[in-house]
Backbone:
């Protein structure tokens, strides 16, 4: 039996800190990104109708939520604010070296080591993957905050 859930108690409300505007965009952006799972991978594309490459996917998701990002993976990494790996939050961008370049892939961090992205291989569709798998853990380069 639960106790302390009913009754009348005089408690003054605690003021709540207002989050910065960019943080208010994150939950809808992540929700929208997750709704695009299954959209086909298409190199150079950036729309649900035509498909996405990884940076086109990230750019589309954030622009739909009022945040303008550069078009390429390297430009995103160069212009956004670095985030320590132990401080990654939902909506942060995660960058990977999948082709021998400094950075060649980007996704959107969801939660609990999961991120949503548009990979070119395996499924060829927007999907959720885990940073805990050997493949992604070994290729992780950096995280940035839009």
Residues:
């Amino acid at each position: 039996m639960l106790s302390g859930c009913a009754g009348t108690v005089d408690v003054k409300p605690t003021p709540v800190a207002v989050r910065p505007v960019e943080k208010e965009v994150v939950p809808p952006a992540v929700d929208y990104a997750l709704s695009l799972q299954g959209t086909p991978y298409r190199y150079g594309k950036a729309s649900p109708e035509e498909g996405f490459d990884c940076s086109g996917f990230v750019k589309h998701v954030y622009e739909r939520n009022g945040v303008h990002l550069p078009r390429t993976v390297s430009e995103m990494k160069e212009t956004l604010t670095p985030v320590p790996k132990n401080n990654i939050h939902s909506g942060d961008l995660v960058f990977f070296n999948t082709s021998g370049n400094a950075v060649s892939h980007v996704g959107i961090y969801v939660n609990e080591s999961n991120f949503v992205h548009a990979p070119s291989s395996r499924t060829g569709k927007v999907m959720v993957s885990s940073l805990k798998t050997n493949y992604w853990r070994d290729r992780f380069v950096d995280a940035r905050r839009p």
Q: What stands out?
A: The longest strand covers residues 105-111. The chain has four helices and eight strands. The chain has one domain: 21-145.
